[in-house]
């Protein structure tokens, strides 16, 4: 069970299976050459995160027929009640699937005392932060906006099952499917051979000094894996992040003052409102609002974007996927900083604490409506109105020159 049941259909069957059970390949032949001329070669690197692949070659297939599906519904949205009911009835009664839903979704009063009541007994429930779903779910269906996909990512700290996201929310940049034809679309996913895109995540490790007084808001186990305390008395926690890690000045009136290290080397000190470290998927979220470029999710990269920097020359930069980034308060910083992951889990960072960020080896396999390239550009046009402009009129006669 789980995401290990799924892989990517490809032309070269000898390709290795990636950490999430998704096979990757390129239509342009084998992996990039590592030999150069008669004698030069590149050392094998066991720490390699990924290799370049053709997005069009990424297809979903099943080694066994999927049996269990997790349905994630946006909470407190009455518009989703009817689609949610229809989908659950279709999955249970028509497709004979084992359906998991969040317990608090079924506690909605609008789902009681109606024809759906009998079906509720057939649904499996889970509680956020308490139940481990990693070995139970074959694929995921999201109903709502982009936040539902971020939430689905947060539930799986290791391998993530394939995600099919329906656009029923406010933005829908990450949710390419329309619900009108859900039966045929879900059937096609169950049968396999659909396009898929691997959305890279960030692996974030937060190390805090063990203090008498706890700073920030109380943390739960939603997207946190506690690694314990080492011999120096530091508490370490780890997160998987799909969009971005944000370090900002919080309620302080002083400039944020944090040091940024790359592979152990001090790159710069950020003086401004803060810093965004994002994946290509997150490049169209907060980073885009802060002036960064938009990066296609298939590009193996990490983007670093300052928030309102007090420097005219501090531009967003893109670094290779797999580098080790480290963020700490500058020794002479006047105030603490605040940290959040995909807009959640906000907590305070003090002197001596550190944030280490690199590319996770567990991406989110997102099922495409058409293909990774067309879906992305359609989202740019539909959701962000990218490059929308009144067309320049054509020349009519020689006097227009």
From TrEMBL:
It holds the Pfam family NAD_kinase_C. Coiled coil: none annotated. One of its GO terms (molecular function) is NAD+ kinase activity. Residues 1-29 are annotated as: Disordered. Keywords: Kinase, NAD, NADP, Transferase. GO terms for biological process: NAD+ metabolic process; NADP+ biosynthetic process. InterPro entries: ATP-NAD_kinase_N, ATP-NAD_kinase_PpnK-typ_C, NAD/diacylglycerol_kinase_sf, NADK. SUPFAM superfamilies: NAD kinase/diacylglycerol kinase-like (SSF111331). It is an enzyme of class 2 (transferase). Its EC number is 2.7.1.23. PANTHER family: NAD KINASE, NAD(+) KINASE. Belongs to the NAD kinase family. This is NAD(+) kinase.
């Amino acid at each position: 069970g789980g995401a290990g049941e799924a892989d990517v259909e490809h032309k070269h069957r000898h390709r290795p299976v990636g950490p999430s059970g998704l096979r990757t390949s390129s239509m342009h032949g084998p992996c990039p050459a590592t030999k150069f001329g008669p004698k030069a070669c590149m050392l094998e690197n066991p720490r390699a995160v990924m290799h370049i692949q053709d997005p069009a070659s990424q297809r979903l297939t099943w080694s066994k027929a999927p049996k269990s599906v997790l349905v994630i519904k946006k909470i407190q949205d009455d518009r989703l009640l009817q689609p949610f009911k229809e989908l659950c009835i279709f999955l249970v009664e028509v497709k004979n699937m084992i359906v998991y839903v969040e317990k608090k979704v079924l506690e909605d009063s609008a789902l009681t005392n109606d024809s759906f009541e009998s079906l509720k007994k057939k649904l499996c429930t889970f509680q956020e932060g308490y139940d481990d779903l990693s070995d139970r779910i074959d694929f995921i269906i999201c109903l709502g906006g982009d936040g539902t996909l971020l939430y689905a990512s947060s539930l799986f700290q290791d391998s993530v099952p394939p995600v099919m996201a329906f656009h029923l929310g406010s933005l829908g940049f990450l949710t390419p499917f329309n619900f009108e034809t859900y039966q045929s679309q879900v059937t096609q996913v169950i049968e396999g051979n659909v396009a898929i895109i691997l959305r890279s995540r960030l692996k974030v490790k937060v190390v805090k000094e063990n203090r008498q007084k706890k700073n920030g808001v109380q943390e739960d186990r939603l997207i946190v894996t506690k690694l314990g305390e080492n011999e120096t008395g530091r508490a370490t926690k780890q997160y998987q992040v799909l969009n971005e890690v944000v370090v900002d000045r919080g309620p302080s009136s002083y400039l944020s003052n944090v040091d940024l290290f790359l592979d152990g080397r001090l790159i710069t000190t950020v003086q401004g409102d803060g810093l965004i470290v994002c994946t290509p998927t997150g490049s169209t979220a907060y980073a885009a609002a802060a002036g960064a470029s938009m990066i296609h999710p298939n590009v193996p990269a990490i983007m670093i974007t300052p928030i309102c920097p007090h420097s005219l020359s501090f531009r967003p930069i893109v670094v290779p996927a797999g580098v080790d980034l480290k963020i700490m308060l500058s020794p002479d910083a006047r105030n603490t900083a605040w940290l959040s992951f995909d807009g959640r889990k906000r907590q305070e960072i003090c002197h001596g604490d550190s944030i280490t960020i690199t590319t996770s080896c567990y991406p989110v396999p997102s099922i495409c409506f058409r293909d990774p390239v067309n879906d992305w550009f359609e989202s740019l046009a539909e959701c962000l109105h990218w490059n929308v402009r009144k067309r320049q009129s054509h020349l009519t006669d020689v006097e227009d020159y």
